[in-house]
Design goal:
535 residues; alpha/beta; 2 domains; 20-stranded parallel beta sheet; five-stranded antiparallel beta sheet
């Protein structure tokens, strides 16, 4: 028999179930998503910044390239004969989105008064090129870059002188019109001269013909004796022989022993034309226009205690207009060129310590020659008055009459250079104008035919010898005798002489610039002084 039995097995122990952490997983997923988004955003932002930086750098580079292109174009332009000048700016497109604008300014901001090169200021040119580049998608985004060149004109050629200029400037005095010409001692014209009118030599004094003849003869004798050449001319003298009387020619050719040539066929018309009103001038083609000041407007019709000269910034040539009558009183020094115009265009010098001198032009490249413009271009009269003391250094051109008025013994005048004039009147000294009787008596006394008591003439001549440092028995000449007896200083203080410095005068057509391109060049040449980037 089967017996059913129940086995007593131990019951398994049931452990309590733990709750699942589903919320944490969500957080982890969200965190990872946030990090992914942040990294993606950062990557996108970095990529955008990099792209913008690249675009900005590209625009900056394009602007710089545009500026450099403008500078290159400007340098080519100013070296071409077609250049329109400093007043015309330059524009050019480099690409659809980049371009340049170029401006030209006369001068150099770094060249200041006091600098040893300050006189070069008007020959320098500042070229500023501004380059632009814009974003094609956003035109408001634009890059700008500036570059600059400072250049200086290479002066290789000057405007041409007239064909007759060298013949004119070979003369100390060139008088062209058929007029009466007065030359009265003690004046002195040194070097070659031309007299085209009728010469009246010593017409006022000595007023006794024999005394005049002896005075002129003895002036030459003094020269031969080495006692100074005080003749009114030392020649050679070009003179219109057919217009002179026999006595005058004899005085010049024989008594004064001046070599002459005949100029009877030389035209009596002006060899040069007065420029009229010079309202402006240029130093080079396309250069700045400078307006010469009017002396009467700026300083008055009577100048005194005044020094004027070139100003590199406003008037580099020292060109001055005289509109109307101009009186020059004491202590006036003008360096440059005076051009007279209007209805009464004359200059009268009244004062002492007066100096009118030409300004020197900057030299040409590779040349040591110095050129000067005329010191005065006078439409009518240039007069030197009594008691004045003045100097003119340079070339003076007078289209009517140059006159040294009859003056006191203190009147002094020196011209060193050239005088070209239609009329010439050198009138001498007031104190020498004596009666014919006085001159006759002095002549007779000197020749021991007058009324001097016996032995008195010999005593006078010995006194003259002593004053001159001459040995006993040496010849005393009539001018020396008159200097002792009457105080007539025979050493001329009214003189016209050539320039001995080697400077050459230059005639300027004021409708043209001073410096022009060399015939072998396509245009002007320029030397680079300085390049500036990012200005």
């Amino acid at each position: 028999m089967t017996t059913n039995s129940t086995t007593n097995r131990p019951r398994p122990t049931r452990t309590a179930a733990r709750p699942r952490r589903r919320g944490m997983a969500v957080l982890l997923v969200l965190g990872l998503l946030a990090i992914t988004l942040a990294v993606s955003y950062a990557a996108l932002r970095t990529q955008g910044t990099t792209s913008n930086t690249a675009r900005n750098a590209s625009r900056t580079l394009d602007a710089r390239l545009a500026a450099e292109s403008g500078l290159a174009a400007a340098m080519h332009k100013i070296s071409d004969a077609s250049w329109q000048g400093v007043d015309v700016s330059l524009h050019g497109d480099v690409t659809d989105d980049s371009w340049y604008d170029v401006s030209f300014t006369t001068g150099d901001t770094q060249l200041l008064p006091g600098d040893p090169n300050y006189a070069e200021l008007p020959y320098r040119l500042t070229i500023t090129s501004t380059g632009y580049a814009e974003d094609p998608a956003n035109p408001d985004l634009r890059a700008i870059h500036r570059v600059r060149n400072v250049v200086q004109l290479a002066r290789r050629e000057m405007s041409a002188d007239p064909a007759n200029w060298s013949a004119l400037t070979a003369k100390t005095v060139y008088q062209w019109a058929n007029r009466s010409i007065v030359v009265q001692g003690p004046v002195r014209v040194s070097g070659p001269a031309n007299i085209n009118g009728k010469l009246f030599l010593f017409p006022t004094y000595p007023s006794y013909a024999a005394a005049r003849d002896q005075y002129l003869t003895h002036l030459n004798a003094m020269r031969q004796a080495g006692r100074g050449d005080h003749r009114p001319f030392n020649g050679p003298l070009g003179i219109a022989l057919t217009r002179q009387d026999v006595t005058t020619l004899h005085h010049v050719q024989v008594k004064l022993a001046v070599a002459t040539t005949d100029t009877s066929l030389v035209p009596t018309t002006a060899p040069l034309t007065h420029p009229g009103i010079v309202s402006g001038y240029r130093l080079y083609p396309g250069g700045k226009v400078y307006q010469p000041p009017v002396l009467q407007t700026t300083y008055g019709a009577s100048l005194a205690n005044l020094t004027l000269g070139p100003d590199p910034a406003t008037n580099p040539l020292g060109l001055f207009r005289s509109s109307g009558a101009l009186a020059i009183q004491s202590n006036v020094r003008i360096t440059g060129t005076i051009v007279t115009d209007s209805s009464l265009p004359e200059i009268q010098i009244h004062g002492t310590n007066v100096l009118l001198q030409a300004a020197s032009l900057p030299r040409l490249e590779g040349s040591n020659q110095t050129w000067q413009l005329p010191v005065a271009l006078v439409k009518t009269y240039l007069r030197i008055n009594s008691n004045s003391s003045s100097q003119i250094k340079g070339t003076a051109i007078v289209w009517d009459d140059f006159e040294i008025k009859t003056g006191s013994a203190t009147t002094q005048f020196t011209l060193s250079g050239n005088l070209f004039t239609a009329g010439l009147n050198l009138r001498g000294r007031e104190g020498w104008t004596m009666t014919a009787t006085d001159w006759t008596n002095d002549y007779n006394d000197f020749n021991d035919t007058g009324g001097l008591l016996g032995g008195l003439l010999a005593s006078l001549l010995n006194t003259v010898r002593s004053a001159l440092g001459l040995p006993a028995g040496a010849t005393v000449h009539f001018p020396e005798y008159m200097q002792h007896q009457r105080g007539f200083t025979i050493q001329p203080a009214l003189t016209l002489q050539p320039d001995s410095s080697g400077v050459l005068p230059h005639w300027q057509d004021w409708t043209q610039p001073i410096y022009v391109k060399d015939p072998s060049d396509p245009g002007l040449r320029w030397n680079l002084v300085r390049y500036e980037d990012g200005v």
